[in-house]
Amino acid sequence: MKAIEFADVSFRYEEEGPFAVRHLNFSVEEGEFVAVLGHNGSGKSTLARLANGLLTPDEGTVSVFGTLLGEKNLYEVRRNVGVVFQNPDHQPVATIVEDDVAFGAENVGLPREEIGRRIDFAL
């Protein structure tokens, strides 16, 4: 099953500005690990923000487990999409990777033991 799918996604930060992402098509299968690499300004953070609904595409669609991303389902989608930034200073929660990985699981009320298992699996 496709965990995330981008279908012809384009996005720009300013209405008449250059596209940060243009006609992007890709999918990530459930259980697959993906690293997004590129130079500064190449669209990595934009891609991550589009995947979890922090940004909305100007064109195309983003789906998470078959559900089209939209305002009405952002909470549910964000339960399935997490982002860990390369630079700890950019982390929205903590400066320790384990704490960032645990953050989402803690917010949905998972038991501490399960959170520990998920951290071990992810890292």
Could you please say which CATH topology of the largest domain applies here?
A: Rossmann fold
Q: What's the CATH H-level superfamily name of the largest domain?
A: P-loop containing nucleotide triphosphate hydrolases
Distance between the termini: 22 Å
Listing every helix as H and every strand as E from the N terminus to the C terminus, the arrangement reads EEHEEHHH
Instruction: Please identify, by name, the CATH architecture of the largest domain.
Output: 3-Layer(aba) Sandwich
Number of domains: 2
Number of strands: 4
Please outline the major beta sheet: 4 strands, antiparallel
> Strand sequence of the main sheet, in spatial order?
2-1-3-4
Provide the β-strand percentage band: 15-25%
CATH class of the largest domain: Alpha Beta
- Unreliable stretches (pLDDT < 50, length at least 5) are none
User: What is the 3D form?
Assistant: globular
Mean pLDDT: 85
Helix content class: 25-40%
**Backbone CA Rg:** 15 Å
Keywords: ATP-binding, Cell membrane, Membrane, Nucleotide-binding, Translocase, Transport
InterPro entries: ABC_transporter-like_ATP-bd (IPR003439), ABC_transpr_CbiO/EcfA_su (IPR015856), ECF_ABC_transporter_ATP-bd (IPR050095), P-loop_NTPase (IPR027417)
GO cellular component, one term: ATP-binding cassette (ABC) transporter complex
Protein name: ATP-binding cassette domain-containing protein
